[in-house]
Amino acid sequence: MDCLLKHMVDMTGHRDHHMLDLSVSAAVQELAAAARVRVLTLASSGGKQLLRPRAVIGAGGQARLEEPYEGAAGEPLAALPELQACLAARAASAARPGPDGGGILWLPLWIGERADTCLEITHPAPLLDATMHTIAGVVSVYRNFQNLLDYSERDSLTGLLNRKTFDDQLARMLQSTDAPEPSLPDRPERRQPHADQRQWLAVIDVDHFKRVNDRFGHLYGDEVLILIANLLQSSFRAHDRVFRFGGEEFVVLLRSSTLENAWKIIERFRTSVEAHHFPQVGQVTVSVGFVALSASEPPVAILGHADQALYYAKANGRNRACHYEQLVAEGLLQAAASNDTVEFF
Ligand SMILES: Nc1nc2c(ncn2[C@@H]2O[C@H](COP(=O)(O)OP(=O)(O)OP(=O)(O)O)[C@@H](O)[C@H]2O)c(=O)[nH]1
């Protein structure tokens, strides 16, 4: 009981999804005496259902986060037919028996009709009913707490991450920027990220949005923001982070991408907005400024550089994306001092 209470206190003391994932995996590993526990994201990409590990812990080890990287689409759900059938039937759990009464247990976290997260418990011995009962309780607390965190981290109009969570997420990305990839002895198949891959920050602003509000009213303006948020979510990958920064301004943190791919992804989003028919309003466009993250620069300077590139895009025709370093290299922008920010509202 003491052990359970200790884990509950630890889990509910966090205000961060990653720490919560680490806590729940440590709790379940200890309670189930598991050989391995993984927290998995259930995602779909290109019509395929995928599993992406978020956190993992082995027996006697420390829980650690699994950092996503470009090219890591995820593990195909089809490789785990028991879990696939469980998700299709909206069932509470799936199991694959192993030797000596051990096996693998999957516990999807259902929120209504959706399960975005699943716990995977590899246990060498049978799980007693009492243990199963305790784990089910821990998983329910985890799900409720995840919900609460989601609520406090999200913008109520668009459902995107809010400004408040940006600083944390940027600090986390900056920490992993320029840091050497940890060696993973238990995952020898893991591909190392390409040397050209960087992390990127893009600031996106709706063009002439005031005109939309003035002509069609705020309700239609709000609808445009919601539709743009949807286009953002479908254009960027699950491990990128998309924020509504306020008003008609959005920020994206793009993980591990080459400059060429960052251009492609950002252009794909910009052209998808341009091609979208917004009910009543018709065509809407966006301008984008983006910059590579560098651990040696303070967040305010990085944001300032992306803002400068956005300002350039606004001043030079709108409906375009501009890359800060390229503008500086071409002499079109002056490299700004680190405490510079550009205001255009
Ligand atoms: N409907 C709606 N409008 C908002 C919201 N937040 C800010 N706005 C409006 O967004 C508009 C921003 O206008 P401006 O800053 O002048 O910029 P703009 O018209 O987009 O022009 P450029 O950025 O120069 O292309 C203002 O009219 C704000 O009232 C919101 O949540 N909903």
From TrEMBL:
InterPro entries: Diguanylate_Cyclase, GGDEF_dom, Nucleotide_cyclase, Rev_trsase/Diguanyl_cyclase
Record EC number: 2.7.7.65
GGDEF domain ranges (all copies): 197-326
One GO BP annotation of this record: negative regulation of bacterial-type flagellum-dependent cell motility
Swiss-Prot/TrEMBL catalytic activity: 2 GTP = 3',3'-c-di-GMP + 2 diphosphate
GO MF: diguanylate cyclase activity
Pfam families, per database record: GGDEF (PF00990)
UniProt GO cellular component terms: plasma membrane
Gene3D superfamilies: 3.30.70.270
Domain of life: Bacteria
EC supergroup of this enzyme: transferase
PANTHER family, per database record: DIGUANYLATE CYCLASE DGCM-RELATED, REGULATORY COMPONENTS OF SENSORY TRANSDUCTION SYSTEM
Protein name: diguanylate cyclase
Organism: Massilia horti
